[in-house]
TrEMBL record:
Residues 3-119 form the Response regulatory domain. This is Response regulator. Keywords: DNA-binding, Phosphoprotein, Transcription, Transcription regulation. Residues 152-217 form the HTH luxR-type domain. It comes from the Bacteria. It comes from Actinomadura gamaensis. The modification 4-aspartylphosphate is found at residue 54.
Amino acid sequence: MIRVLVADDEPMVRRGVRAVLATASDIDVVAEAADGHRAVELAQLHRPRVAVLDIRMPGVDGLRAAAEIRRTVPTTGVVMLTTFGEDDYILRALGDGAAGFLIKSGEPEELITGVRAVADGAAYLSPKVAARVVAHLASGGTGARAERQAAARRRVEALTPRERQVLAFLGAGLTNGQIARRLHVVEGTVKAHVSSILARLAVDNRAAAAVIAHEAGIIPPSASFG
């Protein structure tokens, strides 16, 4: 079972998230919190596999809670719930180690897919979130966009050919197991490649690496987030 913590200051949203996740036989919501401070306490107490956090909460917000959970309970993957217009928050959360981003107005099935992906060690960005992140990074104008894309390509070129393949599939939201099956290798080999990729790209998590893959334009045309 995938043990999940849900944190949102709106009771109706929490109940809705719980109700959606309850439809999945492999997911168990073990705790709920109405603010970031309580979310951190419950994460430390229950040690869930995934914490689903709203970005905006009173007191300790989702961003600070995510950073503290990643610091004190590193086995817990963090999925952020966002609304449009929070692009800067998403970029900050990437830096704090969040592995998944979902739009509150998205399809219920996407929530289950995202939780499962993060529980399996993958990065998951809702397709809408991925598009927003890439667009936001490119919002500085044509010159800035071209500069960022060129920088991403240079970083990717420093990888080995196999690492570039793994990064492309990682950027498309595939888990290590799925990548291993695509490349006909054992999962341990993919894990080793991912660790090397994160080190070479100087990023802390798969979601940040996925953004670089998008900026560099190496995502396979038949694959996408989710």
